[in-house]
Write a structure and sequence with these properties.
Ribosomal Protein L25, Chain P, seven-stranded mixed β-sheet, 13 helices, Rossmann fold, binds adenosine-5'-triphosphate, binds magnesium ion, elongated, alpha/beta, 3 domains
């Protein structure tokens, strides 16, 4: 764990530990298996597992699987993969709310017998109409006065599968005039005659979140139940259920602000929409804010954990700038990723005074940040590729790279001077540069102290590996795509969020790069070998992040009018 920053949750737990309120801290991460995990979940995972680890407690992984219509084993599996990849281990403490269905049912009968729950037979619309508003109290259902016996009979018949979906619900009997809407006789059970991915056809009724969650926490001996702010209003209900049942263990629910991240959406419903409508290439599309998307993109678990620590935990909602997450991954890869030369938009260069049949092996440093990473040899020969952008026939004033008559340094190699430009006679496009090199500048330095203003990367044409390189960028052009008035977030997708470059020229060592390997392409950014589309001997590269935050500059030029920066 990195150095402990103070946050209000850490303070609460530390106090509970020092006062002896709890012998052992027990937290849980409780995802609903109805989608893949996203970066917001990572915040919750890091917090729950992190707090447990810090106070030598334990953290459970619990599937909150009470809504079979939306849930799937594909999600159950992906969630486990993602939590493990982030670096956390629940050991034997894997739980499913569905394993508690029998106990939950018994709790419901206990509430009925205590006169604290009743079967209501109003329709969903009628129940809504009876609920009242923030300003007006609700009105009692005509079924609120049913006897314990009648309620027990109806509830048992609900369980036996005698009723159609929506015919009856079980509600807590609390207070229809409560200023807190979630206390106005909330629904605890509903009839849903659909099979469950774990319990099959056993149950035609399913418990709702507010009933299931507090009791699952209690059954598992959770000490601190950390959840996001939207549950703040539900806390009295969380406590009511546990008090009404006089549970032995009564965890403390503590709310924190959910993570919102700029230039993306973090709602499972919207992410599912992107996947189902084919607007992205699956849940693990490298542009998705899912853990699996970031993994495929080339993010490291360390960078995501570092980001989660950096953003901290607060009580107030805000939008965190995507640039912060990008900073975390750059910071991590800067130290760890070996560097290579790769030409993404190749322009052919012929060094006229370099012998035709000669190849030299130039020594190149693997990572100047870490001498232990050593060096490698890169072949240099008469015909090379440089980046098309590194040449201008009519250079503007501040362009210091290659131009006719001008001399630049080729990284780890020689000074070269451009002597001629070859163009396609039909289009006028520059297709080749003719250059000369100075043999006295071997290694990239000049014995006579002659200075050049630019150092370019290059790849020897005869030795180059050809590959596809995918330049991924932010998925949306707007900072808060799902909060723009009268605009569907799907219309704000960045059309340049994926640009595939074919026929890029890479230094030969990259031909052997293994799926999942991460590296820096000098002067370009961090890249990762795609784990899905790479084939043996044919790596496909994904851009993790460019070297610098190019969006900051764009925004200054064209203010979007967006607000809500965190
Ligand atoms: P969504 O609203 O996108 O469907 P959810 O909150 O319903 O997400 P769950 O599977 O219920 O998804 O979430 C599991 C846990 O992760 C919960 O404790 C939830 O509070 C937390 N969580 C979900 N989204 C975020 C977020 N953006 N930031 C922090 N924690 C989050
Ligand atoms: Mg939820």
């Amino acid at each position: 764990m990195s150095e402990a920053r103070s946050n209000f949750i850490r303070t609460i737990i530390a106090d509970d530990v020092s006062s002896g309120k709890h012998a052992r801290v027990v937290t849980r991460f409780p995802p609903e298996p109805n989608g893949y995990l996203h970066i917001g979940h990572a915040k919750s995972i890091c917090l729950n597992f992190g707090m447990a680890a810090e106070f030598t407690g334990v953290c459970h992984l619990r599937f909150d699987d009470t809504n079979p219509t939306k849930e799937d084993v594909e999600y159950v599996d992906s969630i486990q993969t993602d939590v493990r990849w982030l670096g956390f281990d629940w050991e034997a403490r894997l739980f499913y709310a569905s394993d508690y269905f029998e106990r939950l049912y018994e709790c419901a009968e206990t509430l009925i017998r205590a006169g604290k729950a009743y079967v209501d037979s109003l329709t969903a619309d009628e129940i809504r109409a009876h609920r009242g508003t923030l300003k007006a109290p609700g009105t009692d259902s005509p079924h609120r006065g049913r006897s314990v016996d009648e309620n027990l009979d109806l509830f048992r018949r609900m369980r036996a599968g005698e009723f159609a979906d929506g015919a009856h619900v079980l509600r807590a009997k609390i207070d229809m005039a409560s200023p807190n809407l979630s206390m106005r006789d909330p629904t605890l059970y509903r009839v849903r005659r659909v099979p469950h991915h774990r319990t099959g056809d056993t149950w035609p009724i399913y418990p709702l979140y507010d009933f299931t969650h507090c009791l699952s926490d209690s059954f598992e001996g959770i000490t601190h139940s950390l959840c996001t702010l939207e549950f703040e209003n539900h806390r009295p209900l969380y406590d009511w259920v546990l008090d009404a049942l006089e549970t032995h263990c009564h965890p403390q629910q503590i709310e924190f602000a959910r993570l919102n991240l700029s230039y993306t959406v973090l709602s499972k419903r919207k992410l599912l929409q992107l996947v189902e409508e084919g607007l992205v290439d699956g849940w693990d599309d490298p542009r998705m804010p899912t853990i699996s998307g970031f993994r495929r993109r080339g993010y490291t678990p360390e960078s995501i954990r570092d980001f989660c620590e950096e953003i901290g935990v607060a009580k107030r909602d805000s939008v965190v700038d995507m640039a912060m997450l990008e900073h975390s991954v750059r910071n991590d890869l800067n130290k760890r990723a070996p560097r290579f030369m790769a030409v993404l938009h190749p322009l052919r260069v012929v060094i006229e005074n370099y012998p035709e049949d000669q190849t030299e092996e130039m020594e190149a440093v693997n990572n100047p940040e870490d001498p232990a990473m050593g060096s490698r040899r890169v072949p240099f020969s008469r015909v090379l590729y440089i980046e098309r952008d590194d040449f201008r026939e009519d250079p503007p004033r501040k362009f210091f790279r290659l131009a006719p008559g001008r001399e630049v340094r080729l990284r780890y190699a020689y000074y070269v001077r451009c002597t001629d430009v070859v163009k396609d006679p039909a289009t006028g496009e520059v297709v080749e540069l003719r250059c000369t090199y100075d043999p006295a500048t071997q290694g990239g330095g000049s014995p006579d102290g002659r200075k050049v203003k630019a150092t370019l990367h290059w790849v020897s044409a005869a030795h180059a590996v050809d590959a596809d390189v995918r330049l991924y960028d932010r998925l949306f052009v707007h900072e808060t795509p799902d909060a723009v008035k009268d605009t569907d977030f799907r219309t704000l997708i960045n059309p340049e969020s994926l640009v595939t470059l074919r026929g890029c020229k890479l230094e030969p060592a990259l031909g052997q790069a293994q799926p999942g390997a991460r590296m820096q392409f000098e002067r370009q950014g961090y890249f990762c070998v795609d784990t899905v589309d790479s084939v043996a001997g044919g790596p496909v590269f994904n851009r993790v992040v460019p070297l610098r935050d190019t969006w900051a500059r764009i925004e200054k030029k064209q203010p979007t009018g967006a607000s809500g920066k965190g």
